[in-house]
Write a structure and sequence with these properties.
CNF1/YfiH-like putative cysteine hydrolases, alpha+beta, globular, 7 helices, five-stranded antiparallel sheet, 262 residues
Length: 262
């Protein structure tokens, strides 16, 4: 019981007015937040702080939520919203010439005031910064994106020594809630043998329980990143805090995960 009370106190400490602030040793000029599902204007089933325009929510509500986000976090500019499709594409914000939102699953920047953002509802949001506070990135890492190479591609595109990077894993589906089939496990194990440790046979059927936090960490380490933090939540079971596609289906809302250089 004492352990649960301590966890709740820790949770309250890092949750500020419907936002989670990552607990990691990032430089002071690196600003990062993840939203929870409360605090917005969207109505059921998107209640209430939904940031996706692609799941059926009223556009006016989503735009109102985005405006509220800008005001409450005092964002320097509109976040660089992506059209996420589980690709391996990482975009440098300052070099982007395509109309937004651009199809990609990661963005990065070295420009102060440019805001990287990815939206999630079970997939792992990975926020990156270097120890000098000179570059930041946000990655949308679902299992398909991880398998497609989004983590390695983003880090390679950042053109920085990966040992200088810090990574924070935001709220995603937990290892006791993410059931996958044998073919999904095989995809990862064929790429990296150490991925086998991220899958546990489900006793009730022929499925496996996958630890997507562990998979993300394995691929981060493979790319050279060793300073990894976070991975403490479960979007599926913590319904009062998070949206979950696996739990709620097509009409699930999306959280926003943001990082920028002040």
């Amino acid at each position: 019981m004492a352990k649960n009370v301590g966890f709740e106190k820790a949770l309250i400490k890092i949750m500020i007015n419907n936002y989670i602030k990552p607990t990691w040793p990032a430089p002071k000029n690196v600003k990062a937040y993840t939203t929870i599902r409360t605090g917005g204007v969207s109505t059921t089933p998107y209640a209430s702080f939904n940031f996706s325009l692609l799941t059926g929510d009223d556009e006016k509500n989503v735009l109102a939520n985005r405006n509220k986000l800008r005001q409450e976090l005092n964002l320097p500019e509109e976040p660089f919203w992506l059209k996420q499709e589980h690709t391996d594409i990482a975009i440098c914000i300052e070099k982007n010439t395509k109309p937004t939102p651009v199809v990609a699953d990661a963005s990065f920047t070295q420009t102060a005031g440019s805001v990287c953002v990815v939206t999630t509802a079970d997939c792992v949001p990975i926020l990156l910064c270097d120890q000098a506070g000179s570059i930041v990135a946000a990655i949308h890492a679902g299992w398909k994106g991880i398998a497609n190479g989004i983590i390695a591609n983003c880090i390679k595109a950042m053109n920085i020594d990966p040992t200088r990077l810090l990574a924070w894993l935001g709220p995603a589906i937990g290892p006791k809630a993410f059931a996958v089939k044998q073919d999904t496990r095989e995809i990862f194990c064929k790429q990296l043998s150490e991925c086998a440790s991220a899958f546990v046979k489900n006793e009730n059927d022929d499925a496996f329980l996958a630890n997507i936090y562990s998979l993300a960490s394995i691929y981060l380490k493979k790319a050279g990143v060793t300073k990894i933090y976070g991975g403490d939540y479960c979007t599926f079971t913590q319904k009062e805090l998070f949206f979950s596609y696996r739990r709620d289906g097509e009409k699930s809302g999306r959280m926003a995960n943001l990082i920028w250089l002040a």
